[in-house]
Each structure stands twice: as C-alpha cells, then as structure tokens.
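::Encoded backbone::
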Amino acid sequence: MLIIGLTGSIGMGKSTAAARFRHNGVAVFDADAAVHELYQSKAVPLIEGAFPGTTANGSVDRKRLMEALMQDQQAIKRLEAIIHPLVREMERQFLIAEHANGASMAVLEIPLLFETGADKTVDVTIVVSTDAQTQKARVMQRPGMTGEKLSAILARQMPDNEKRRLANVIVDTSGPIPETESQIDKLIRQFESRDGTAYHRHWQSV
C-alpha cells in the first residue's frame, strides 16, 4: 500500500485535492477533522488539565483555548504534545484498516506534514500550491477571518516555497477546480502501479 502525504498552507486547495482522491475511491484521513473530534472526546480532560478553564460541557472551547495560547509562548508546544500523539494513533488505525481492506493507496491530509516530521512516515509527499495573492483572496472569504488571524496562521506554517522544495509532487491549484482535479486524476493513475514501504516501516502493529 502506498501512503501519500497531502499538505499545503491554508487556502492552497488541500480540501479540493482530498475530495478528488475520495471521488476516485481513495480513502483520506483528515488530520484537522481528527483534531475537531478529539476536542470533543479524548483530549478534553487532558487540555483542561493543561489549560484550566478552556473546556465547557464536555468539549474544548476554542475561543478560550486560543486566548490561553496567545498568553503563553510555550503553550502551543504543550498543546501539540497532547494532540499529536492522539492524532498519530488515529492515523495508525486508519492505515491498518485500509491495509486490511486491500487498498492500493491511502492519503494522510496533514496541514503540518513537514513541520511535524510526518513526511518521514509516508511514501510520497504532495504539496498543493498557488500564488500568495490568490491564497489570501481565498482565505479572506472565510467567516471570521482577519488579516491578523491569517498572519498568525502563516507564522506557524512552513513557507510555501520551502514546502515546494521538499515536496515529491507539486499540484498547482491556481486555475479552475477542474484543472486541479485533472492533476489529481493523473497522479492516481501514476501511483496505481507503485507499492510503498512506509506502512511496514512506520505504521503496522508490532
């Protein structure tokens, strides 16, 4: 089974690319969705312990948590130390299930793929990318987004040019969505004949 790491900065088109993989029958693990799930389940008591007052009614209050993170430079590292191992285990269970089902490939959609070193646990890395002007125009259309929030998000992410340098494959999302989808379709056809080693090296149960 070939394990594909899909990444890209905010507003670059990860969701479009992931949706196209799913359209072609390739399972995708969404790391952001996993974090949302954890904020309403396993992570709640752990986050409350590390950041008192940031949970309510059995789930994490994102606004309170964000305020706590902004007050302490080391807070993000403490939060990541809680969240990342939980997400990693969810990824493992996802890949074990896909392997058991005989899948030829599976996708891990991880915004901080390179930043967290997760690129070492996949067979091939794909970076979706567009120009900075297009990226900003897309992101600023999101509800509640401000220039300050965007700057804070980008500060946590590896610069796009660095991601492009590290990527095995770059998908240009500057054009219409069908053009992006066509690039993904072509990649899937290329990947169908490839087998990976990452599953046995990093993910299968011991």
